Amino acid sequence: MKVYDYHHLNHVKEQHTSRKTLWITLALTVFFTAVEVAGGLLSNSLALLSDSAHMISDVFALGLSLTASYMATRNPDGKYTFGFLRFEIIASFLNGLALVVIAIGIFIEGIRRLIEPREIDKPLMLTIAVIGLMVNIVLTVILSRSSKEEENLNIQSALWHFIGDLLSSVGIIVSFILISVTGFLIFDPLISMVIGGIIFYGGSKILYESYFILMEAVPEKFDLESVRQDISRVEGVRDVHELHLWAVSTDHYSLTAHVFIDEAAEPFLVIKDINDTLSQKYGIVHSTVQIEHPAVHDHGEYGKRFLAVH
């Protein structure tokens, strides 16, 4: 492998646990999706069909998540200087979007079924729902453990798909019981719409978090003004501006800042002290600090005010 540049921070992610988990869940999901689609069509249950549609999206979600996990292991090059970590967030965004679209589809079909109820093959509906419940419990537990071991929005987005599936299976069983007791077919679309609401919540949450990162907003775990104040307290620093802090991926943060320093200060030591502060207090190890002086570097009215004060 050709090393064209030196990086203080390794812009790759090795996610062996996550990747193994994703392969296992993908294989189980593909198998059960085929079973559930067939069962939904034969039983004519919207709850079952909505769950099978969600399972199809799970296959798509897992495929994206697996692709992202492999992309994250690729080293930076002359074009992709941050490596390919951001693909993890793109995959999360698409997964969240898929969840929202599926939820809207369930709502629309639910309204149709409320207007025109359809007969349901309840025994087949229950059989597949019970199998689905067991499968989804296993998959949810596997992904949940993986997300705890390796912080990753990509895995969290896949996990939300299976939480939705788990709730769908429970909803189908509840729907079966209520229809059997009351004879009202309306419970099938009603429960489906409740499940759709939960799926919509999970999808919108993932969508928001990934959008937040793609827009390079300051991560919620940081207070930008607190970071600014801590940099300002470093000996020799007189002002901090042009401060940017963002996440490349879920646990990969970058910071850039311009600072005015005392003329007598040693620039290299100031930069080192700033980097040490950022690393030790905030865990930010990828920072770029530019040393400036308002008398040399034009800062317009801002620089003039600074010179007037100092």
From TrEMBL:
Kindly list the places in or outside the cell where this protein is found, as annotated in its UniProt entry. Membrane
Where exactly are the transmembrane stretches of this chain? 21-42, 84-108, 124-145, 166-187, 193-214
Kindly give the SUPFAM superfamilies that the UniProt entry links to this protein: Cation efflux protein cytoplasmic domain-like, Cation efflux protein transmembrane domain-like
User: In this record, what's one Pfam family?
Assistant: Cation_efflux
Membrane topology value: Multi-pass membrane protein
Q: Name one GO cellular component term.
A: plasma membrane
Where in this chain does the record put each Cation efflux protein cytoplasmic domain?
A: 219-293
**GO MF annotation terms:** zinc ion transmembrane transporter activity
Q: Which UniProt keywords apply?
A: Ion transport, Membrane, Transmembrane, Transmembrane helix, Transport
Protein's UniProt keywords contain Transmembrane: yes
InterPro entries, alphabetically? Cation_efflux (IPR002524), Cation_efflux_CTD (IPR027470), Cation_efflux_CTD_sf (IPR036837), Cation_efflux_TM (IPR058533), Cation_efflux_TMD_sf (IPR027469), CDF/SLC30A (IPR050681)
**Coiled coil where?**
none
Keyword Repressor on this protein? no
- Which top-rank group of organisms is this from? Bacteria
* Domain Cation efflux protein transmembrane residues, every copy: 22-215
Q: In which family does this protein belong, per the annotation?
A: Belongs to the cation diffusion facilitator (CDF) transporter (TC 2.A.4) family. SLC30A subfamily.
Task: Output this protein's name.
Answer: Cation transporter
Organism of origin: Thermoactinomyces intermedius
